[in-house]
Amino acid sequence: GFTEENLREYYENPPAGIDLRVWKQAQADNPNSAVFIPVPIVGFSELCRKYKCHNEQVTVHKLTLNSIAERLSELARKKTRVESKLEQYTDKMDQLTHRIVKVLVGQMVILNAGMALRPEEETIKNQLEILYNDINSPLRFQGKLTEIATLVRLKNSELSEDSKGNSGCIPQVAEEIKRFLELQQTMISEMQTVVKEDFNAINLMKESLKNVR
Fold first, then answer.
1. CA 26, CA 39: separation in Å to the nearest integer?
2. Mind listing the pLDDT tens digit for each residue in 93-120?
3. How far is residue 200's CA from residue 196's CA, in Å, rounded to a whole number?
4. What sign results for the dihedral spanned by CA atoms 97, 98, 104, 108?
5. Nearest residue to 42 (alpha-carbon basis) of 23, 61, 57, 56
6. How is residue 97 annotated by DSSP?
7. Phi-psi region for residue 17, left (φ > 0), alpha (ψ -120 to 50) or beta?
8. How far apart, in whole angstroms, are the C-alpha atoms of residue 22 and residue 28?
9. Residue 141 CB: number of other CB atoms within 10 A?
10. Rounded Cα gap, residues 111 and 114, in angstroms
11. pLDDT digits over 63-74, tens only?
12. In sequence order, which ranges of 112-137 are alpha helices (DSSP H)?
């Protein structure tokens, strides 16, 4: 390779047939002086040699890029396989987790067989019973309906004087009451379903405890 002294001498003395200003401009146009040095091309043969070297270098770059592309494709395929395996292992882990939970629940049922309910369990049971009785009590909702009917009659009485000028008020109030009743009925049905499911679960637990005994 060139030493610093050789490079300095090479830069200061232009090759034969090259003007000093052109030589200085070639040095100024060098994109990376730490790696490249300006080399004069004189004659057609030198130009052909330069073109050949350039094509060879381009071919090397293409081969390198193709190799990198193949490597990236292989890594992408491996990544897909790893993700598939990871998904399978995740599913297996979920299944094992469910099995462990079932085993723990069964163990707790066996350990608690013949034992009285804990205070927090007794509290939940009482709350569910109160809620169940409240939902299935006909008097409660009958009282609500009576209250709504009274409000409707009062509203009709208040609007009787303005019914001619505001004929759309009464139908609007009736529609609002209808929507309210439909919403309340839906909520009641959903609450009944939830409470029944909870009681079924409690009864199932009781039966399991009896079988354990």
1. 9
2. 999 998 898 888 888 777 777 777 778 8
3. 6
4. positive
5. 23
6. H
7. left
8. 10
9. 15
10. 9
11. 999 999 999 999
12. 119-135
Tokens of 171: 């139908």
| 8 A C-beta contact, residue 194 and residue 132 | no
Whole-model pTM: value is 0.37
Dist CA 37 CA 9 (whole Å): 13
Please report, for the chain, the start and end positions of each structural domain, with discontinuous segments joined by +.
1-40, 43-117
Residue 38: Cβ within 10 Å count = 19
Are the CB atoms for 60 and 35 separated by under 8 Å? no
Amino acid type, 211 = N
H/E element holding 157? Answer: helix 138-159
Cβ within 8 Å of residue 77, ≥6 positions away: none
Do residues 26 and 11 touch, judged by C-beta distance below 8 A? no
* 181: its two tokens: 């009743």
* Structure tokens, 60: 């090397």
What is the residue whose two structure tokens read 């130009």?
47
DSSP 37: -
In the chain, the amino acid numbered 156 is: N
